[in-house]
UniProtKB/TrEMBL annotation:
Protein name (record): NAD(P)H-dependent oxidoreductase
One Pfam family linked to the record: FMN_red
Provenance organism: Companilactobacillus formosensis
Recorded GO CC terms: cytosol
InterPro entries xrefs: Flavoprotein-like_sf, FMN_Rdtase-like_dom, NAD(P)H-dep_reductase
GO molecular function annotation: FMN binding; oxidoreductase activity
NADPH-dependent FMN reductase-like domain boundaries: 4-151
Length: 182
């Protein structure tokens, strides 16, 4: 049976460079893995008042079930103001509750930060790491995945240049090795 990998993209915009990088990464998984995008843009802002058995939004339940079903989570995110976009933090919060039923617990994760700038989303990468440590996710350590100057890497069809495929493959290979340990 193929192993599902939930792919969460921190950007909600249609032409997102992060999403384009995510698509390139998804093509590089071995055939027994099934990476798939999980939507985060439709999740209502987390509010404990609505997260009750009577009121829980259908979007929360669908999101939680999809991630629960996955063997691991690949995060590909831009940096907003030296941290992660609010939508991605909201998704982490939604998945972490109800208390004691976190969907993130023990799920191996990989983080890829993406930016048109030279600092490569370093701040977002590590802000995300901070939350994932608390959420008890084993996180890929090496290679660290900071994709900077992304507009120079992607062609007009959204494919990465030949030289970058090898780097993306090394990230996926190391992540698969991590997944195989769990
Ligand atoms: C609210 C906001 C804050 C941003 N802050 C940063 C930042 O701290 N660091 C950075 O490298 N880029 C920053 N940017 C620029 C984004 O990297 C750029 O818009 C990028 O294309 C967003 O990723 P996407 O293409 O996946 O949507 C910011 C953009 C927005 C909209």
């Amino acid at each position: 049976m193929s192993k599902k990998i939930a792919v969460l993209v921190g950007s909600l915009r249609k032409g997102s460079f992060s999403k384009q990088i995510a698509k390139n990464l998804m093509k590089l998984f071995p055939s027994d893995y099934e990476p798939e995008f999980v939507e985060i843009g439709n999740l209502p802002l987390y509010n404990e008042d609505i997260d009750t058995p009577e009121n829980v939004p259908a979007e929360y339940t669908e999101f939680r079930n999809k991630v629960k079903d996955a063997a691991g989570v690949l995060f590909v995110t831009p940096e907003y103001n030296r941290s992660i976009p609010g939508g991605l933090k909201n998704a982490l919060d939604v998945g972490s509750r109800p208390y004691g039923q976190s969907i993130w617990d023990k799920k191996p994760a990989a983080i890829v930060s993406v930016s048109p700038g030279a600092i490569s989303g370093f701040g977002a990468n590590h802000a995300l790491r901070q939350s994932l440590v608390f959420l008890n996710m084993p996180i890929l350590q090496q290679p660290e995945a900071y994709i900077g100057n992304v507009t120079q890497i992607l062609d007009e069809d959204g494919n990465v240049a030949e030289g970058t495929v090898g780097f993306l493959q090394s990230i996926v290979d190391a992540y698969v090795e991590l997944l195989n340990r769990y």
